[in-house]
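Title: Comparing notes on inverse folding

I've been comparing how different people in this forum approach sequence design from structure. To keep things fair, I'm posting one structure and asking everyone to reply with a full sequence. Here's the target:
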């Protein structure tokens, strides 16, 4: 949910109290790559040897971090920022080849996935193929009960029952009603409390268990990837969207925590950002808004559970749209665009005090991009969270632009671009000449390899954390960008070939390791 740059970033003039969190003490670098972009022959990247080889690349290059986008189960549009659950994992990422080795699938079962493109993810094909394969694997597992190296399935279900029970039932019902949004289901199952009394619960028992089995595989396999990362000295930076999708198990199971009509369960208002110089209509995201009074009343229990679950799959959490905790743009529902709305106060520091009380050693990054008010800056400073700089937002103005490297503060993370930006090469090609000229003069370069010019600038900056995207490491153009905000479909499809990364072991990894040594990363 990155927004265009402000001309300058305001700073707080008031004396801030001691920050709640103060964790970013050492310098380091990492790469942003969502796992679906990993190579392989299963339709999209999965948790297999290609993920481990990517970790080898990071280690060889002297990197410390792998940043991923949210790992939740994606819905319409395939965006990891619009998931069916804030707690569940994306079963598309499960390595089915491992299930062949465990005799839960036959090698021939994977042939349709192997026939898909190795360069672009076809989510429609995966949607039709992979859930059926996981159901088949569960049927064999149920019949044979083999000993898997992932631990006990029943124990996994019991440990995660607080969210897994509702999520698996939600997905089973969604399939049963042919994909309809939950507020269009029959009244008897239109929220979790009523659905638990429905006879459908027993009829869908196998479908519920199959979904739970997919989650068991996801979290077990991801745990193996995280163990491989720890062995190589790599930490995982995860991502937590501030909002959840309307059509999600979260809203279905907890309607009282969201601004929903108690009769229809349609939203009373939705999230977005207002119009600005770059967007005449603003951005209408459509996510339901939180009833912060309800969250405050129970000590932010849902949020604490969400943070706990997130820290179980990563080491550091980037919170998307941080400014929404200070104030959020409330758009009455329904609306065609984000022009009509108003700023409403968020929970502010009170929520982060609750985070600190529950997770005093938590490592959190604030995505504080966009037009920042002084109160947003104060919230970030009082919380102590490092903010973000994006180099693509730095050019064409004057020396006061807060995203220029000389304005970076140590307690920050610097990016050439994020998942919402074009690749650096693609951005530079399309940028106005005024901005390109500024880049060349500022960095003292000719711009012929601008992606690597931005890598060096990131490494040299005062920001203690520098993150570059893999497409920028590969110096790729716009075809390799992860996401385009104005496009509802066709995003999150780029994948790299294994051979392309192998070429960068040696010269490139040696160069990155040298940069890390030169700039103390």
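Reply #1:
Here's my take.
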């Amino acid at each position: 949910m990155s927004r265009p740059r402000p001309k300058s970033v305001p700073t707080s003039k008031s004396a801030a109290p001691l920050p709640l969190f103060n964790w970013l003490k050492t310098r380091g670098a990492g790469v942003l790559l969502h796992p679906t972009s990993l190579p392989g022959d299963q339709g999209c990247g999965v948790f297999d040897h290609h993920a481990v080889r990517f970790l080898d690349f990071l280690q060889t290059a002297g990197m410390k971090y792998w940043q991923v986008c949210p790992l939740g189960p994606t819905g319409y549009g395939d965006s990891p920022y619009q998931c069916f659950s804030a707690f569940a994992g994306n079963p598309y990422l499960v390595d089915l080849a491992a299930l062949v080795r465990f005799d839960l699938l036959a090698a021939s079962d994977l042939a349709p996935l192997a026939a898909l493109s190795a360069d672009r993810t076809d989510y429609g094909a995966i949607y039709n193929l992979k859930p059926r394969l996981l159901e088949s694997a569960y049927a064999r597992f149920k019949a044979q009960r083999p000993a898997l190296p992932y631990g006990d399935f029943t124990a996994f279900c019991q440990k995660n029952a607080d969210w897994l029970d509702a999520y698996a039932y939600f997905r089973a019902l969604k399939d049963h009603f042919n994909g309809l949004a939950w507020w269009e289901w029959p009244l008897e199952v239109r929220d979790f409390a009523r659905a638990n009394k429905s006879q459908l619960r027993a009829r869908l028992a196998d479908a519920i268990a199959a979904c739970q089995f997919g989650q068991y595989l996801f979290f077990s396999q991801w745990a193996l990837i995280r163990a491989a990362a720890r062995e190589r000295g790599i930490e995982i930076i995860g991502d937590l969207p501030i909002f959840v999708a309307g059509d999600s198990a979260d809203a279905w199971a907890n309607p009282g925590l969201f601004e929903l009509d108690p009769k229809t369960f349609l939203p009373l208002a939705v999230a977005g950002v207002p119009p600005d110089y770059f967007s005449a209509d603003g951005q209408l995201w459509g996510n339901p808004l939180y009833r912060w009074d309800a969250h405050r009343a129970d000590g932010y229990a849902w949020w604490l559970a969400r943070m706990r679950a997130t820290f179980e799959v990563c080491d550091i959490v980037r919170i998307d749209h941080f400014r929404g905790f200070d104030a959020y743009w409330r758009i009455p529902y329904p609306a065609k665009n984000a022009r009509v709305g108003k700023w409403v106060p968020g929970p502010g520091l009170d929520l982060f005090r609750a985070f600190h009380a529950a997770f005093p050693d938590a490592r959190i990054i604030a995505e504080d991009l966009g037009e920042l008010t002084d109160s947003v800056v104060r919230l970030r400073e009082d919380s102590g969270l490092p903010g973000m700089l994006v180099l693509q937002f730095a050019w064409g103005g004057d020396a006061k632009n807060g995203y220029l490297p000389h304005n970076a503060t140590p307690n920050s993370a610097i990016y050439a671009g994020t998942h919402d930006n074009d690749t650096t090469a693609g951005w530079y090609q399309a940028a106005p000449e005024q901005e390109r000229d500024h880049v060349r003069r500022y960095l003292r370069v000719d711009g012929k390899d601008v992606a690597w010019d931005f890598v060096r600038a990131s490494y040299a900056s005062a920001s203690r954390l520098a993150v570059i995207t893999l497409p920028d490491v590969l110096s790729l153009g716009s075809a390799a960008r992860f996401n385009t905000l104005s496009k509802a479909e066709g995003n999150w499809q780029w994948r790299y070939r294994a051979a392309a990364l192998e070429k960068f072991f040696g010269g490139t990894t040696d160069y990155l390791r040298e940069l890390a040594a030169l700039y103390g990363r």
